[in-house]
Amino acid sequence: MTNLAEASWDTEGACELKQAAILLPGFRSACESLMPYAKLYYHATWSTKQREPLIDADRASLITRSVRDSCERMGVHCHAVGMVADHNHVAVSIPPKLAVADVIARLKGSSSHLVRNQSDGKPAFQWQAEYGVLTLTERALPRVVLYINNQAEHHGNGSTIAGLERFE
Predict the structure, then answer these.
(1) Among candidates 29, 139, 132, 44, which has minimal Cα distance to 89?
(2) For residue 78, what are the contacts with CB-CB under 8 A and spacing of at least 6?
(3) Which H or E run includes 99?
(4) What are the structural domains of the chain?
(5) pTM (2 decimals)?
(6) For the chain, what is the mean pLDDT?
(7) Whether 133 contacts 44, CB under 8 Å
(8) Integer Cα distance of 88 and 98 in angstroms
(9) Residue 113, SS3 per DSSP
(10) HEC-encoded secondary structure of 120-152
(11) What is the C-alpha to C-alpha distance for residues 113 and 96, in angstroms, rounded to an integer?
């Protein structure tokens, strides 16, 4: 039987091997397999160029699909996507290896590209250059997801949350 390494943590958090390991091919010691731990939650919002009301139901579907697909390809967890006629909201968990600005740029770029290529006869589509992004606590995440999922209702009855609507 192969004896695998046991790991412990000293007071500074450094991993120490208690005994030498004989490892099978493809296996790592307990210390080598440790991965960074992060819980990073973001709420981001951006608008159409000049806040033009360009997002109808068809475009909303395309934008949602594009954002979710792009997130999956980047290893970003998409908690929610919601929008009204002139802006979009997302709640995402972005791994520390990715820059928030790069993720937002990719989400905006891929969604506008898809909408432009599949909007026959509709007005030209473009996102505004600016965006807003906030960090969230794990405790706030469910409330923000609920808010994002109910964008039409919030904008229809005037119950928007000003801090979650900033993107300039």
Answers:
(1) 44
(2) 67, 68, 71, 72, 90, 91, 92
(3) none
(4) 1-34 (no CATH), 41-164 (3.30.70.1290)
(5) 0.74
(6) 81
(7) yes
(8) 21
(9) helix
(10) CCCCCCCECCCCEEEEECCCCHHHHHHHHHCHH
(11) 26
